[in-house]
Amino acid sequence: MSEVSLDWENLGFGYIKTDFRYIAHWKDGKWDGGKLTTDNVLHISEGSTALHYGQQCFEGLKAYRCKDGSINLFRPDENAKRMQRSCQRLLMPEVPVEMFVDACKQVVKTNEKFVGPYGSGATLYLRPFLIGVGDNVGVHAAPEYIFSIFCCPVGAYFKGGMKPTNFIISEYDRAAPQGTGAAKVGGNYAASLLPGKEAKARNFGDCIYLDPKTHTKIEEVGSANFFGITKDNQFVTPLSPSILPSITKYSLLYLAEQRLGLKAIEGDVYIDKLDEFVEAGACGTAAVITPIGGIQNGDDFHVFYSETEVGPVTQKLYAELTGIQFGDVAAPEGWIVKV
Ligand code: PLP
Ligand code: COI
Description:
alpha+beta; D-amino Acid Aminotransferase, Chain A, domain 1; D-amino Acid Aminotransferase, Chain A, domain 2; nine-stranded antiparallel sheet; six-stranded mixed barrel; 6 helices; about 20% helix; about 30% strand; globular; binds pyridoxal-5'-phosphate; binds 2-OXO-4-methylpentanoic acid; pyridoxal phosphate; amino-acid biosynthesis; aminotransferase; EC 2.6.1.42
């Protein structure tokens, strides 16, 4: 199928209306069959819990065009399972994994012309979301729910993509120690809007949050997890109950150890021990791997590898991860789902 005419090499990360989206309704204890629609506007009750009490969650995953023209999804079952965990935390009905993955496939198939050409760097970003709807006003779980998936063709999330980006340590928290940081729920992102705006106004890509209990350890970027590479070849990424368990991060932990021979560690990353790292990066579906040039912490600016060059381990991890996603490198069992 031919693609639509877009400047594929230079797409940023923005909303572009595509042809079809999937929508399913939950009522009286069950999901309906779900369907594709061309309508990108939702008509919901003014009392919807998603609007008042933040009873909603979302996911993000991508479809990748391969050299042979086929299309890959990367670990969509992991997104389905993470959405189930978000639903458990916010008392929402879970979407079965099979229904989630099947809906992703339907959305990609019917919007195939929006999956950028192989080699352009563009991908089709899928945004599944689940919201509490129906007439309600008290603080309790909604009587009805909508699960939907729309998609947009996207390029780099951070300007420049695989180029070093600088970040700043935030004085705000995005999540509480026993709060909802590990769930992909809108409230965490609402909390990150002001810190993110302040960071960008100072020319940083985004901010990095510290652990909300002690403010001594790196947690994550507002839209991606953090990793660092030590002098002695360890891939280290924070372990915390208040960060989002990134599917990209877990994939990199595996690839770092199994394919690059590094020691992969989830542990504490103390903000006053950044000189242990010779390289650092932000990783996520949207961010892919974004090398971190430097981190501003108060008056101190710490540079990792370089503000202009990408370190060799970060480069290798990027090649391995994106090679798998675009079908050029053999994937570990079950990581790729063909559309
Ligand atoms: N952390 C946050 C706060 C995010 O929004 C994301 C994006 O989904 C990630 C980390 C990366 O997660 P994943 O690799 O599953 O996309
Ligand atoms: C993702 O990487 O899928 C995200 O959700 C990050 C951001 C767009 C919120």
